[in-house]
Amino acid sequence: MPSGGAGMPAGKTGNHFRVSPTCRSESTNMANKVRVRIAPSPTGNLHVGNARTALYNYLFARQQGGTFILRIDDTDAKRSTEKDIDGVLVSFRWLGLEWDEGFAAGGDYGPYRQSQRRDLYDGHVQQLLAQGQAYRCWCTPAELDDMRKAAQKQRRPFRYPQTCLHLSAAERAAKERSGDPFVVRFLSPSESTVDFTDLVRGDLSVEASELDDLVIVKADGMPTYNFASVVDDSHMDITHVIRGADHLYNTHRQIPIARALGFSLPAYAHLPLLTNPDRSKLGKRSGAVLVGDYASQGYLPEAVVNFLAFLGWNPGTTQEVFSLAELIEAFSLERVNRANAVFELQKLVWLNGVYIRGLPVAELADRCIPFLADAGLVDPADIDRDYLNGAVELEQERLKNLAEAPEALDFFYAEDVTPEARLLVAKKQTPADSLRALEQTLARLRGLDSWELATIEACLRGLAADLGWKAGQLFMPIRVAVTGKTATPPLFETMVALGRERSLSRMSKAIDAFTGAVAELA
RNA sequence: GCCCCCAUCGUCUAGUGGACUAGGACACAGGCCUUUCAAGCCUGAAACGUGGGUUCGAUUCCCGCUGGGGGCGCCA
Question: How many independent structural domains does chain A possess?
Fold first, then answer.
């Protein structure tokens, strides 16, 4: 038995659970250490909505001194490969959400893959069958589909008509002898309502008559999500189920199953959904919705975490920037919102800049290297770190994300910058005068006996004064000559970072090219 | 269609019957700083969906309406 070690703790008798509307959160065993889980299905990558859910589970566990568990919900045999699982794990790790127990981490409640817990589920199915709270059903998917369509046509809600529940003994015997595939259905509760108190939303209630007999075991013998989850959450001693509000209805369906099995219930907290700008559920076709997309677009995991944390929760203070450690301290389920949150990137863009500016230069450089290497600007095996750090330092407050690094830093690495001649013309000056100014600049720069910020500045400001030009008039053409661009970090710092050789040779080349173009520009 | 949930600036949100001329952040606009671009600083514009109650008094409580969302699978 896969999770035999878990057993069923004493006290898990469920006897303090009633069907009445008075079933509240105190019915959970609060004395137990907090145990929460994130249970992704192996889809190859992590959706930001699941990432947010995982984050809240993580924060809650850490804050409560509890355990954060990762379970793989892979009851759908059609999609479940090692590679797909790995894709999910990579994103959790990138975000920094380390799990204490579960898949790839071990623990006393394993295995942590539902596909490997068949025996456990089978046992509980037998129990329900024996209790008369579940029954076999031979209706085929095609038949059900027809019934659904018919119901829709009559504009009536579809509910399974319990055909196979009401089979005569003879009919049932015949079906069983036939060897035809069957599913197992849970007999929906006879109580009037199914109620629970949600930690975020308060008292929730659904008429039991709304719940039809849902399939708990598929024809291939695998349990369905709603069944396996209930069994695992109980056997893994999960104390709090924190998940998206899209599971609200599932909770009403899972509670009767848990009760029929004699399980005590965890506390539930349903998080508001993340939506598209049009308020529809954030789906696969909604632009960048995978954590991996944000990594490759140059967002920092700490920014993504901070951003995600604030989608549906806030600390009640005006602080906006939170490290993971600070989030752990400040987080509380009580302050989770009920209304859906639009997944808008503008704040993430800003936060990302905040985190980039807050990084030590060397670390920012480290994080830029993969992007620079991809763009062919640097060879990771052979990097002049001092030069790179100098360049990164100058661009640090200009970078909104790492993916911009190649474009921002390209002139530090380009062989030639080939500035446009017309950009070498100083503001309110003629091309000829501009050319002369550049020539004088080069001459004076060559005469400098040190290549330092103060020296260069004194030199260029002095020249501007001698020329009777405003500083900016002179600096822009030099900037363009040296970098090829009109928007760069401050000129003197840039020239220092580039170094004397590069700076002077670029100026010289620019002057040569400019000389040939002056006539046309005039 | 049926069931459930939700509702404050464009967006994320504070607010828990009077301290609200409704606060903060992002984005936006203007200004300052300035060798360009950023960063930073200052200022501005910008919201309680609607109709009824309850109350001396509602953004806050209740009901209806409207609007939005979710669910209604042998997916999870």
Answer: 3
